């Protein structure tokens, strides 16, 4: 990060060391040192598999009603309260990656969408049948969901909790390999059929991304 002139701070949360920095739009991102889970199988020059990013560690929720958001996590989603500090609680689910959700104790004002903010938190569902089971679970908790929305690569349902956080439950299926080979994922900008007519306009607004080629080890 120093070589790329990225300003960062060192921090620690629940015993895990972190590097905290902001992206070009001001969104705070944290690199978390965590031992759970297998190491990455890819490496590039200067970044070996023992220090490479494994995946998402989790998310931090800033809620307008943190007590009720915590109820959603435990009573509807089945997470458990794992750790607690003076300012934040950590809820955990089974899994090695993306299995922790931290909830700030403070009541945070409702945010406004825009650059530098997070629009929603997404949860995984195996398939659409499982997704519909989750819809019933959320409705039983007293919250209304949207209808199932077809996103071409997956289907989604959305709902707000009482802390005004927007949640998405998205399916794994059919997956991103429906219109390109697995080995070539991410090499081209793929668009659902309904947006293909607007490709030139969309490509004109998308910043180019260049990634170094990694090696599978």
UniProtKB/TrEMBL annotation:
Domain VOC: 55-172
InterPro entries linked: Extradiol_RC_dioxygenase, Glyas_Bleomycin-R_OHBP_Dase, Glyas_Fos-R_dOase_dom, VOC_core
SUPFAM superfamilies reported in the protein's UniProt record: Glyoxalase/Bleomycin resistance protein/Dihydroxybiphenyl dioxygenase
Signal peptide positions on this chain: none
PANTHER family xrefs: RING-CLEAVING DIOXYGENASE MHQE-RELATED
Annotated protein name in UniProt: VOC domain-containing protein
Protein species of origin: Exiguobacterium undae
Lineage: Bacteria, Bacillati, Bacillota, Bacilli, Bacillales
């Amino acid at each position: 990060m120093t070589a790329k002139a990225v300003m960062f701070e060192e921090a620690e949360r629940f015993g895990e060391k972190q590097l905290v920095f902001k992206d070009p739009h001001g969104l705070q991102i944290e690199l978390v040192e965590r031992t759970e889970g297998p190491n990455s199988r890819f490496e590039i020059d200067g970044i070996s598999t023992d220090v490479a990013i494994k995946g998402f560690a989790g998310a931090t929720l800033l809620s307008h009603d943190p007590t009720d958001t915590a109820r959603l996590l435990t009573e509807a989603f089945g997470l458990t309260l794992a750790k607690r500090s003076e300012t934040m609680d950590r809820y955990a689910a089974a899994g090695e990656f993306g299995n922790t959700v931290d909830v700030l104790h403070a009541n945070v004002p409702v945010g406004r969408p825009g650059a530098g903010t997070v629009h929603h938190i997404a949860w995984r569902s195996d398939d659409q049948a499982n997704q519909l089971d989750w819809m019933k679970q959320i409705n039983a908790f007293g919250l209304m969901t949207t209808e199932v929305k077809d996103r071409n690569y997956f289907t989604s349902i959305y709902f707000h909790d009482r802390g005004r956080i927007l949640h998405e439950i998205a399916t794994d299926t059919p997956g991103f390999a429906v219109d390109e080979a697995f080995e070539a994922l991410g090499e081209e900008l793929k668009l659902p059929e309904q947006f293909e007519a607007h490709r030139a306009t969309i490509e004109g607004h998308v910043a180019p991304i260049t990634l170094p080629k990694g090696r599978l080890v």
